[in-house]
Amino acid sequence: MIEMFQMWALIEVLGLLLLPLTVTVFHNLPDRGWAFSKTLGLAVFSFGVWFPLMCLPTLPYSQPFILAIAILFSALCLVGLWRMRATLLKFVRLLICRPMICGSLAILSIITTMRILRLRLPQNCLDNHHLLLSTPGSACFLA
């Protein structure tokens, strides 16, 4: 279950790191792109890992490589955060504090609920997922 929280924290951090870009691009939206920052952060980071591997096939796909990309990504995003610090501080103070906390807690509760539901299914339901909805008399029937 700790992996689930690690993934959630990673997505939250990627969203915060990419906030300067989303505030710049989506400046006309009421939330200045906060809703898109996590998705865009995950997409940009994934592209940053994938693109060098496609251009240089000799690069190894390994944890040190992904960590190096994460450090480079973080450094670039921190430069953006530093350059836009006044705008972002005003934005965070005025518009986003309560929705940001509520949204993060809502996502965490949804992920936790999904994890608890998955733990409560019998193991044979998880092994025979193709039969999950096909047999109404079984213990695995969820319709």
The beta-strand count equals 0
Question: Which series of helices and strands comes N to C?
Answer: HHHHHH
List low-confidence stretches.
Answer: none
| General shape | flat
The number of distinct structural domains comes to 1
* Main sheet: strands, sense, barrel: none
Mean pLDDT: 78
Q: How many helices?
A: 6
Q: Compute the gyration radius: what is it? A: 20 Å
> How far is it from the N-terminal to the C-terminal residue, by CA?
27 Å
Structural class: mainly alpha
Q: Which bin fits the share of residues in helices?
A: over 70%
Topology:
Layout (H helix, E strand, L loop, with lengths): L1 H16 L1 H7 L8 H22 L7 H21 L1 H36 L2 H5 L16
What does this entry look like structurally?
The chain is mainly α and 143 residues long. The protein has one domain. 75% of the residues lie in helices and 0% in strands. It has 6 helices and no strands. It has helices at residues 2-17, 19-25, 34-55, 63-83, 85-120, 123-127. The longest helix has 36 residues, at 85-120. It is flat, with a radius of gyration of 20 Å. The model has no long low-confidence stretch (mean pLDDT 78).
